[in-house]
Amino acid sequence: MSNRLEALRVFCTAADAANFREAAVRLSVSPQVVTRAVRELEEELGEPLFHRSTRGVRLTEFGSRLAERARTAVGGVDELFHRTDRRALSQHAGTVRVAAPHVYARQIPEALAPLLAAWPGLVLDLRLSEQHADVVDQKIDVGVRVGPMRDVRFVARAVGRMALHVVGAPSLIERVGVPRDLDALSALPLTALIDHGSGRPWPWAFSKRRSVTIASPAFATDDIDAECAAVLAGVGFGQLIGPLAEPWLQSGALVAVLEAEAPEPWPIQVYRPQRAPVPARVRLVYDALVRALR
Predict the structure, then answer these.
(1) Helix (H) / strand (E) containing 117
(2) Which of 38, 39, 59, 106 has the most CB within a 10 Å radius?
(3) Are residues 28 and 45 in the same domain?
């Protein structure tokens, strides 16, 4: 494949697919075309791009770095031509429905604002919930999920990790002291975030796959900002996600406790349904979110 841009385009598709056959389906070409393009890139660059096995393919470390740069390069060339291409404008017109946790309520609109300005026909429909969206029933095009995602029906890209902190206000700690272990924590005033699906509080997660069930919360809500406000007011200790807790930890308004018991940070992933062909507007928003949330 003599055209380097087309080879990179094929490589980017293969990087997002489970295997070369799936990439070929998305590109409407034969698997041999994908295999040949990847092999030629590997020969030219002198580095393997994929680990190959009977179960599929997986990017090498070099391949992952190249994929990031290649997506930017291919996207830049496409955008250069699409800006003056009426056909492309029509391809990117329409609504893209995005599902995300409430913590991204400000970040996603701000991140996608330049994209919406560049493509006047593109409409963002943002649905916020702590629940994992029902992609089919809610007609979700792109989603952001905090936590593991093993569903093969989706293409998912890891964009970061999110920590959990057990925190309390200095006034609360002065009143009840610092818990030394999970048993001591359970005996103190705690806040709870209600799971919309079950109607019960989400359990708190800790290292070694341990959890604490909040049986008698001092404060319960289904809104993460309200829970954070209660913790700041000294109502109880709360387990808050990093983006909520960390600014207050830095200012001293909250104090972290039991940090040695904290769980591994959760993966943050941007995903879209595994379907072909992918509408141009969906791929545009998906790629923009991956870049913005990294």
Answers:
(1) helix 107-118
(2) 38
(3) yes
| C-alpha span between 39 and 33 (Å, rounded) | 10
Q: Is residue 159 part of a domain?
A: no
- Is the CB of residue 134 less than 8 Å from the CB of residue 196? no
Residue 125 forms part of a structural domain: yes
Do residues 247 and 239 make contact, with C-beta atoms less than 8 angstroms apart? no
CA distances from 12 to 5, 45, 58, 80, 92 (A): 11, 15, 13, 18, 20
Collapsing DSSP to helix, strand or coil, 272 comes out as strand
The number of distinct structural domains making up the chain is 3
| Domain containing residue 8 | 1-74
Q: Which of 88-97, 136-145, 240-249 has the highest mean pLDDT?
A: 240-249
| Whether 227 contacts 219, CB under 8 Å | yes
* Same domain as 278, residue 225: no
Cβ–Cβ under 8 Å, residues 244 and 223: no
11 with 87, same domain?
no
Q: What angle do CA 243, 245, 247 make, to 5 degrees?
A: 80
User: Could you tell me if residue 55 is inside a domain?
Assistant: yes
Residue 89, judged by CB atoms within 10 A of its CB (0-12, 13-18, 19+), counts as: middle
- 8 and 53 in a single domain? The answer is yes
Write out pLDDT tens, residues 74-132. 877 766 665 555 555 567 789 999 999 999 999 999 999 999 998 888 999 999 987 77
Q: Are residues 200 and 252 in the same domain?
A: yes
Question: The whole model's pTM is what?
Answer: 0.66
Rounded to whole angstroms, the Cα distance separating 273 from 252 reads 42
How far, in Å, CA of 243 to CA of 152, rounded?
29
Residue 250 shares a structural domain with residue 212: yes
What is the pLDDT confidence band of residue 19, given thresholds at 50, 70 and 90?
Answer: confident
**Residue 158, in any domain of the structure:** no
